[in-house]
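User: Batch of two.

Assistant: Item 1 of 2:
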Amino acid sequence: MPSSVRAAISRRTSSIFVSRPDLTPPKVTLTHVAAAAKLQYLFLGLANSGPGQGGAMIMDTRGDLVWFSPDTANNSKMDFQLQSYRGEPVLTWFQGKVVRGGHGEGVVVIADSSYRTIHTIRAWDGLTADFHDFVVTPQGTALVTAFRTVDMDLSALGGPADGWLLSGVAQEIDIATGKLPFSWDSLDHVPLSGRRSAHGQHTQPPDTRPVITRTWLAGPSFAGT
């Protein structure tokens, strides 16, 4: 949220709509909007921690609710934002679940200005999209993050022989065709001795401290952090 706008989310109360009793978003109160603020709408991803539903919310700078799409029992919406695809404004978000350690397993979604889903993008190579970043590029591709759990002998690093390693993955996916022009896996590029990857025994779930949190196109090249 920009510094020119401040808001408070009430978890004690939720909105109720006679025409849509199934929707109970938390009430959001704008506490400050700078006089010079050019922002017309706020795009909020609300955690499902109740009371009130979590989900994706749009509100205007008067504090009025414009649109709300609730989370479900199996899918949370995160990284909700306004982007551009083929010259048109679109809404984008991650949809899925958050697993232990703090990364996501799901898909990324693009909706048009009528809130209609026009693309659901899935990661390649048996992976699922993560919530940390989803960028729509001017080239019509989607930059998404994911994680791969790899069985590995870690005894040379002081770990178990029957161990695993969590590798950060970034993929560029053609939105229209679903094809994969580019994929980058930290396991192929970052030495094990210098990586901050999680590792452990199969009796324990992977920790997810190392993450790719931001992706972008640097000229013709793909970059991330």
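Item 2 of 2:
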Amino acid sequence: MSLTNKGLFDADETTPSRADGARADGARADGARADGGGPFPAAHAALAEQPAPPVAPAPLARGLFVKGALAAGAVVTLTGAAPLGLSAVAPEATTCKETVQDVLNSALTFEHLAMTFYHTALTTPAVVGGKGGSYSAANSLDASRIGGARSLAHLQTLLDQERQHAQFLIDYGATTTYKSFHFPAATFEGVGYTSHNGTFLWSLDRLETAFIGIYLAAVIRLGALNHSDLAVTAGRILGTECEHRALGRVIAGDDPVNNVTLEVSSFTCVGDAAKALNPYLTGRGFKGASAGATRQIAVPSQGEVSRVVGANVSTEI
């Protein structure tokens, strides 16, 4: 059995969300639909259409079942090609080879990708208003552009948490050679919708889903390497990444916000993520509506992040 997100990665052009919380199809914030239908957008109905797993000849202990299900994994396409689904990988077909250092280094690379993504959005007038470039009283962010002060605060806190995740990994000895990243060409041209390929909210949803998959794979690999302390840390970061994806859907006005029962297991091994996210690392390979890439965007410094985050910092518990 493979826990995948087939359907969640498909663009749904029929029920776009709006950054101000309203829905173009008339859906209400309480989840009811103006057309009398259920609260779930059409794109997520695909979950119910997936074939049931074959019946096992004998009952499996729950621990063995979960281990096998997560090990099945998948490789996700985040470049904008259609369809944006997952290809299941048989658990016996792939054996992860990453060392502890490999896992930490990969995680740090993608935390820096996340930092660059959120910092660029928060300093781009087309996404958050203002003059862009830096945060100050004279050049304040425009909360109305992203859907209100609460949505703006969400983005600032997301950025701060990604910065803290990166610092945790560095404290554990992680390093990375990647100092800059690319995104689909239209990512920072406006807020967009989670259902509109290549836009900011679409990228947020896909990237956070990928980060969830990365940390799921990291928990499994670190546990297999008998580093339970690091596996627990990866699990704690994983929980926060799940919140990030949900908060992105809050900003988008998507109903329901918590639309998955089980988080998506996108990758069999942590190293698989580099293949799926390669266009973000190289600027080559974005396809379809996401074709083309932004300029090379440098990872923000601690000072640059602090200026943009302002008072919306997160406390480690």
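Confidence is low (pLDDT under 50) at residues 1-77, 81-93, 132-139.
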